[in-house]
Q: What sequence folds into this?
């Protein structure tokens, strides 16, 4: 059954979600997009029409919305008659938008964990700090709420589940590796909201090892990976949303997240952080103006969406999953390779936005067709991975595996 | 005759000026200090009393003043009955304070060229853009206004004049070199107001060569100098106030200014500049707040005054002056070496503030004793250098010369 969709947000990921929803509006139904700045939504819809992305004639409307305003969000959900909300606005909105969905009885999908503006890299358990507190209410009311349905978290959770279901008898280690081997040609830019990007890396690094949280400093532990297509790349241990949910849902396995960084990124990050410019806490200028340094850094940096036209190169994101198979140690690497230029040509966004946005639409399609309409809150690894990865393969993100030194496509 | 002094400003340089005025209140008279934040003035006066710096019993009062408010400044000058104003507030105040002095008939001394908040590294002629426009009025009214009476500009101007008067028949090249070989132990800090510090280096670099302005980029032209005490140090061609006045007052000579920078400073500066964080032009945050990035960087960096307690090492600032003597090429290096720790022990400030503040007090003493009370506007190189350098030698900054490979004290 077709389900109408409301997209919240109007950044690079929302652009991808809008295009992919349009391309699949035979499965989804009427489309709506809302953000604080309506003109951004208008521009996205215009680009959808320019690319003739709507698979069949259909509604696609823009709305102005402050999604922190729960009542306004509920009113928009009711006015538009949507059954699914895809929240790809800033991570500060999650709790408000989820509340609005629970109150109106519609499905909720997001791509990143909730954050409070004043708190950076909170102490785990992250999902349990916010989202999971509403799990019981979702179950009672029969609300489908799919958490972290981007690429990482999201697809990488499905990869872990797939490895457990199909390739290993027992999982002992999950190492998620996220490498962007692309180049945007700017002096410095982040690939998604700088505020969220930097906040990920300014606090303590948490990983789940030997049944407990281990803490490290950012850039303390680095490792060179040799990956398909992108080759040898240095990645660093970071905290990340999915480390928490996988630690719980893949009991007995160590869970680590590794992000690739070049020396230039690390240098810029280190300078900004050490000076205090990545702080979420307000400082007062000599003139008495209170201002959050991180928000000023964000205002100075290129809009991630603006990087797309000149972005070149590829991303490789996947899971090294290690464990026991037929009594012997075994490891698989399940991954995707995406291309910045191809993403831009298809939907007008760069590859990082593409890999984050397409899975949210696949999840919406799974909710619409019932396969993931589970009437409760779920992280992606709790849901059947194969139909999701099959859908992703069809709509733009193929899944590959490297096993016993051989690489082959699983869902393409 | 004793003359009462009003110090404007309450930063690191003002701290030095306050202590040195106190130490010489037999030549100067009643002392007053004013800034926007009166508590900073109170703290400075407290430190003066702690060090028992007043040479003889005398007045030292604190006042709250927005020195951009000309009428308020005039009222304070009249109420306190001062005859000399030492302006060591931000360089944005010069024109307002000078106006107040001209209207009330008192002497004016500053240590840096006027700046307008919205304009960075204006096109030369710098002094002619602002200060020198008031030269005729000063002359008519008999106002003594001594411009740039810090170390550089200031003492280095006197060094150039001394070289011309005493060591060369004709001056062909003046290379002012400013090396801070000290260490404050912080990740990053500027030695004086970060806003003024960075503004010096974000624009085009101007030097005076072959009778015209030459333009370069910052850090484009570097040179290793081998200097007394501090040894081999890399310095870079920069624009600086005194290049302009010396170009005019030392006709026929090339004038260049070289500032020492370590690789770490250059890296931090480059990152901040390339990202746009050193811009004086407001940006708008996603929340709609208009803010000048440079002012936020300033708010994040350590207060220069706070560096003093742990500052170690020495500065070396001087002039390489080249020309013709008895028909042959000849060069002298006239310089001072200052020590951060000694400065802190004496006046509670680091060496950079010390070298900037002591000369302004020497200038005030010269105005008080009549030797520099010239009843007109003047840059330091237009005034007799020897009594000024003698005074400086007595009150804390000795002058040395390296000539024919030998170093010796001139005024110590």
A:
């Amino acid at each position: 059954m077709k389900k109408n969709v409301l997209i919240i947000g109007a950044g690079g990921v929302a652009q991808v979600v809008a295009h992919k929803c349009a391309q699949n509006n035979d499965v989804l139904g009427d489309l709506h997009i809302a953000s604080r700045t309506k003109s951004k939504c208008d521009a996205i819809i215009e680009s959808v029409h320019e690319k003739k992305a709507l698979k069949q004639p259909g509604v696609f409307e823009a709305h102005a919305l402050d999604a922190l305003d729960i009542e306004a969000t509920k009113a928009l959900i009711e006015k538009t008659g949507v059954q699914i909300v895809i929240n790809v606005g800033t991570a500060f909105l999650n709790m408000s938008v989820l509340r609005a969905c629970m109150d109106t009885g519609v499905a909720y999908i997001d791509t990143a964990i909730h954050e409070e503006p004043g708190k950076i890299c909170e102490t785990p358990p992250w999902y349990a700090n916010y989202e999971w507190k509403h799990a019981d209410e979702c179950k009672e009311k029969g609300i489908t709420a799919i958490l972290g349905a981007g690429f990482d978290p999201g697809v990488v959770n499905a990869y872990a589940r797939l490895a457990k279901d199909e390739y290993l008898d027992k999982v002992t280690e999950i190492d998620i590796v996220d490498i962007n081997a692309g180049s945007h040609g700017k002096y410095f830019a982040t690939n998604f909201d700088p505020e969220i990007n930097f906040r990920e890396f300014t606090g303590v690094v948490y990983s789940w090892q030997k049944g407990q949280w281990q803490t490290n400093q950012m850039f303390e532990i680095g490792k060179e990976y040799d990956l398909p297509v992108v080759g040898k790349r240095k990645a660093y241990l970071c905290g990340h949303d999915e480390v928490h949910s996988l630690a719980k849902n893949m009991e007995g396995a160590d869970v680590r997240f590794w992000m690739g960084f070049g020396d230039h990124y690390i240098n810029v990050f280190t300078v900004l952080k050490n000076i205090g410019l990545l702080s979420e806490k307000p400082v007062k200028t000599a003139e008495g103006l209170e201002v959050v340094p991180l928000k000023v850094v964000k205002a100075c940096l290129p809009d991630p969406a603006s990087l797309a036209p000149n972005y070149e190169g590829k991303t490789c994101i996947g899971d090294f999953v290690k464990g026991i198979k037929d009594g012997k140690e075994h490891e698989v690497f399940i991954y995707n390779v995406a291309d910045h230029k191809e993403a831009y040509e298809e939907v007008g966004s760069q590859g990082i936005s593409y890999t984050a946005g397409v899975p949210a639409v696949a999840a919406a399609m799974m909710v619409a067709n019932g396969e993931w309409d589970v009437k409760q809150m779920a992280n992606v690894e709790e849901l059947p991975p194969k139909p999701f990865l099959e859908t992703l393969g069809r709509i733009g993100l193929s899944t590959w595996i490297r096993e016993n030194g051989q690489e082959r496509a699983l869902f393409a």
